[in-house]
Amino acid sequence: MRAKLAGESGFTLVEVVVAAVILVVVLIPLVQMINRGVMLSQQAQERTIAMSLATDYLEEMLSTSHSSTSDFVTSPQTIEKYTQANRTKTFTRWVTPVQRETRYSQHRAYQYNDMLVTVTVQWHDNWSGQDRHVDLTTELLGR
């Protein structure tokens, strides 16, 4: 081995390898944390879209009159929405109305049908590989 000259500096191979190992040990959890954050953000956005689709339908339903469960379209509706990753996500929405009680006005002149209506929105979560869903339920009194 040769002696160091005055003013000559640098890192040895051992120092470089130790620094690289420390860098890798720190970067792997950091990359995993960023990936997890992206995944949670995507899942939150999909859940928000599903809640919005269910809420929109409930608002539309509350603004119109329904006298019986046959007034509702119970067949599934497919809705395409764009997510933050600029990918199209397919959501399926359907309604489950249940007739709860029939009441009559005084002298039986008017009939009031109380209904329980559930709106379900389902989608496939690509990150977990599972089907997810959101259910919103409201009670329609005296329609």
General description of the model:
The termini are far apart. This protein has one helix at 13-62; strands at 77-82, 88-104, 111-125, 130-140. The protein is α+β, with helices and mostly antiparallel strands and 143 residues long. The protein has one domain. The chain has a four-stranded antiparallel sheet with strand order 1-2-3-4, with helices on one face. The radius of gyration is 30 Å and the shape is rod-shaped.
Would you tell me the overall average pLDDT? 84
Task: Bin the helical content.
Answer: 25-40%
Largest sheet: 4 strands, antiparallel
- Count the E strands: 4
- Rg measurement, Å: 30 Å
The helix/strand class is alpha+beta
Q: What's the number of helices?
A: 1
Query: Which segments are poorly predicted (pLDDT under 50) over 5 or more consecutive residues?
Result: none
Order of strands side by side in the largest beta sheet? Answer: 1-2-3-4
Give the DSSP E fraction (strand runs of 2 or more residues).
Answer: 25-35%
- Count of folded domains: 1
**Chain oligomer state:** single chain
- Helix and strand element order: HEEEE
Overall 3D shape: rod-shaped
Architecture blueprint of SSEs:
Blueprint: H1 13-62, E1 77-82, E2 88-104, E3 111-125, E4 130-140
Antiparallel strand pairs: 1-2, 2-3, 3-4
Q: Briefly, what is this?
A:
This protein is α+β, with helices and mostly antiparallel strands.
Defining key terms:
143 residues, alpha+beta, 4-stranded antiparallel beta sheet, 35% helix, 34% strand, rod-shaped
